[in-house]
Fold these 4 entries.
Entry 1:
Amino acid sequence: IGNTVLHVLVLQPNKTFACHMYSLILSYDRNKEGPGSLELIPNNEGLTPFKLAGVEGNTVMFQYLMQKRKQNLWSFGPLTTVLYDITEIDSWAEDQSFLELIVSTKKREARQILDLTPVKELVSLKWNMYGRPYFCFLALFYILYMACFTMCCVYRPLKPRTGNRTSSRDNTVYVQKMLQESYVAYEDELRLVGELITVIGAVVILVIEIPDILRVGAAKYFGQTILGGPFHIIVITYACMILVTMVMRLTSTTGEVVPMSFALVLGWCNVMYFARGFQMLGPFTIMIQKMIFGDLMRFCWLMAVVILGFASAFYIIFQTENPENLGQFYNYPMSLFTTFELFLTIIDGPANYDVDLPFMYSVVYFAFAIIATLLMLNLLIAMMGDTHWRVAHEQDELWRAQVVATTVMLERKLPRCLWPRSGICGREFGLGDRWYLRIEDRVDPNKHKMMRYTEAFKAQDRDNYDKGSEKLENNGDTLCKKDLSALSLSRSTSRTSSHRGWEILRRNT
């Protein structure tokens, strides 16, 4: 019952009342330390009161709980060294990481905890010492891996075509070799080494990604932008395309260019995932993801309707014309593709002035230009501009969340020998088996001195005002004018002294 009340207090809107009641309940806890403590008992979702405060974005309760856990080590003048308990914060030995819970929640208030002590210092320590070097090395390794795969695709086994052409529009001069012909020369053996590296890399990607999908859940794993959800979809699809290409090569099936092309596009697009390691580029990956899966997905439904309608009209108009003179609409699929290019203004309106164009082509093309170019494209630009404005106001906060998500990911994937635990064990200071982070805090004495000056000036103004009020109440009506003049003189004197005091504060600042 006590643990349930603690979880309820974390969710209370009245933060001050919740903190006082929280302390009151813990004062009756018999097991204040150890696994039997009320603060360490999780709820049905596996969240302790401390983790629940982080998930809900309750910064007041989080800071209150951190103040209860800190230990003052020593003080010397303005310098103070504090030990913060990071037992539940550090993701090194936690199955359900506190940092991962914060970046995976949909509440923006929770991400503000990443800028509080000691979470900010812990993330900075992990990222600067281990996260950034390992992430940069991983980015370089992936780029070299993609370069190897690209070279294998460029020099794939081809041979000249031997059959005759059946159509005047058939332009194929090379065809794919059979499996027995693909690995004969020395150059083929070099390509085989690169292909084996590519296949092994695809298998490693699947082995790394699939356990996280099963642990977190597909909806949460692919749906969270900060966790890199869309990029996880891209890299898993890329690995599947590599395996499909391998099967088609081993079975000598024609058409391997289809999965190979998809793999090249997806593999190189995944390089944008590594931009999150840099503060200048990290927020732009968030913008791209939100634009593609937000603005662009909604806009594509409208675009598909417009393209389908006008492409059908163009195909009907040129259905009776000679396709050799106007080949952009010679069949229905080509009409769809040409209309798509016209929609994005990639090409100009197809027109052959050596022949007579149908009259309805001019009418339909005029309506298409008004709707597509002037209206819908400007609508898309406005939508993307609004998304860019919203993300730009949160770019520092989003980049910190990206750094936390990347740090937790690397800490889980890398061996323990490459990523030691951060912090100091409490046994060194007689504080048990808990782990602490040492942080040095500098107290500025001038700041406290100026605060005392401010309070003194405010108190002087209040005293002068109270004295003037008492004079007004005690004197009669005949002395009212005299007392009012004295009051104004007293208050003017007060304002003068207060004004001098504030001038001193401004100069000190």
Entry 2:
Amino acid sequence: MSRGRAAGRGAAKAQDQGWAWMVLLAAVVLQALTLGFPCCIGVFFTDLQHEFQASNSETSWFPSIMVAVLHGGGPLCSLLVKRFGCRFAVMLGGLLSGLGMVSSSFCKSISQLFLTAGFITGLGSCFSFQAGVTVLGYYFVRWQTLANAVASTGVSLGFTLWPLLSQYLLNEMGWRNTFLIFGGILLNCCVCGAIMRPIGSLPQPSEPEEEPGSRAEEAQLSNGAPPPHAALQQHNNRTTCFQALQKYLAFDIFCQNKGYQIYTIGVTWMMMGFALPHVYLVPYAIHNGVDERRAALLISVIGLINIFIRPLTGLLSGHRVFTGRRIYLFTLAVLLCGLSNFICVISAEFSVLILYCIILSIAMSGIGALTFQVLMDVVEMDRFSSALGLFTILESITLLLGPPLTGLLVDITSDFRYVFYTSSFFLISAALFMGLSFCALEKKNKLREASKVPLNNPSRYQYSETPSEPQAESQPPPAVEYITSI
């Protein structure tokens, strides 16, 4: 017992100071290496098409698989973290990411890229990123919000640097050697993981006593005797499986909490069009006569502006004026993102595309800064991790399907403008759905509250079906978190 207390005191001393800031630096690099990486795939789009004689739809499958696995692998990563720890998960992810890109340099068909660059690299990036964010919850308590905000700047750095590096290496040595070099760069995730040494164990509550008869049943099993009440045991096993699914995938919240239901459906629908400009902007610019170097610069412009706008958006949304109203800021950002796509349809000149990237980046900053904050507003914090698990899996499905289906439309019409028409349709319709639905839900809740006796301690969750008590600041972070970034 004294050892547990000593370990707990050691863990507390390591938080918010000293080595914690080195861990934060490693988290910034991790997010640049993992979340920022898929943005550069558009630079290779045309070369891969010519190399494998593939259509737009076929070529877009492997970046779609990469992004979908990166976002949807959260529950698998959480199990890995729970069993082996954050450091192991980050280093394993770096090894898989590097292996995937090295293998991609030897691929002989576009379908082989689906496995190597798509699944293996995507899964490795998921492990490294999500475990890297989870470990921040252990190293930071007082400065946790600041640490997460600083770590998220790594995404913008990746958006800025990856396309420029990709275009340079592509011009100098071709896509195969570039992918080989990328494999070596992604192995640096292992270095970041090595920095994230275990902080020590926090004091754990005592284990509950076993029920009478449980040891007898265990003895029967060890002696080879059949367990009593086999039908009851099978029922208990099914119940356990259901409880596990409910823990990691919050189907009960989805059915009972209207706010969570609306938000999850809206964001899932939004993701059908959200990733399309990242995949097709560079091919669209090249197709319309923009130089390859300048076309790659477009993605970097989006990342550079994100570095400055995203933190400002986070500070603005944190003002008390927007408490309980952040969903409307988020809806406005999604609407602006959808409307900005019409700029590309008007003209494909480089100066016009730069203007498009500036407006798109501002809208993206709002979406990225608010996505998980809004989710915290509509879901009780004690169920946030499981709610986020279902949330990320559903959005990963539409992230997977959006680019290939749009690529098929481009193949049929031979017109890249349909990419931006499609993106605008999904984004604008999602914004209208969420905005109008939350307005209706808020009015319904106000009418319901007006007909009841007001409570002394109303819930701070504006759209939850059931109130919950806010967690104390001193409470240790959850053992597992599913976190993604947009």
Entry 3:
Amino acid sequence: VKSTKKSYFGKRNAVESDDDYEGPLNLLTSKRPFKNPRYKSAKKNKNLKQILTMERDQVFALNIPTYENIECAPSVLPQKKYCDITGLDAKYTDPKTSLRYHNAEIYQFISTLGVPNVQAYLASRNAAVVLK
């Protein structure tokens, strides 16, 4: 009795004959399920620009929230502090100049700055501090 089942890994079973053996499975020549290469799925997501354009074209009542008229309460989280030199998260503040800095390397740079430069950095974040 011969088995019609073929081995996919190249090993021969005792019940298979020599003429039924085709070697290891080749994925390039094996048949795959049908898939149409021209099939395109419908786009499900829209970007903000598309949403705003659609909302401008439609007329909504004033009590319906949209992306343009949404209002929310102020945040209860503390405001984040950023380094005045690099823009990274500021973990430290220089007590002498009140400049915020990220690490020791930036602190060494701050210590070499003159008063006009420190005033310019403070003015960039609207910190009206007059140094003596």
Entry 4:
Amino acid sequence: SHRRGPRADMVPEIAAAVGFVSGLLRTRGCVSEQQLQVFSGALREALTEHYKHHWFPEKPFKGSGYRCIRINHRMDPIISKAASQIGLSLPQLYQLLPSELTLWVDPYEVSYRIGEDGSICVLYEAAAAKAPSSYGMLTCKNQMMLGRTSPSKNYIMTVSS
């Protein structure tokens, strides 16, 4: 049996990153579900391999730049390699994915930014990892939720009455 330290595995973080990139490919509808499964598996394996000696749950931001996945008018090689397994060429990838995307895959938190000055959105967050004080800023998800909660219902009622 493996001796397991405090959550040394990268499974949920990598799953969040892979799910996000696959989701971007899925929204354009040019890639079949079967292709997406192959792509996801290839990306998951590549990231696991790439991060193997660069994952420090006790210092979550150590090595962050190394783990960061970037498309900056240049395709991240890990993404293009996984995409080549399902026959997607670089030009196709550039059409399917944002031209500027940064994806940070760190222990306990996966976040992304589209566009160089876009806001950073958190995809995955392990609650236990952080002291409450460390994040004053709202994630995009929370901001969207706040903007969308109760007022809409009342609004609809007043408009229809």
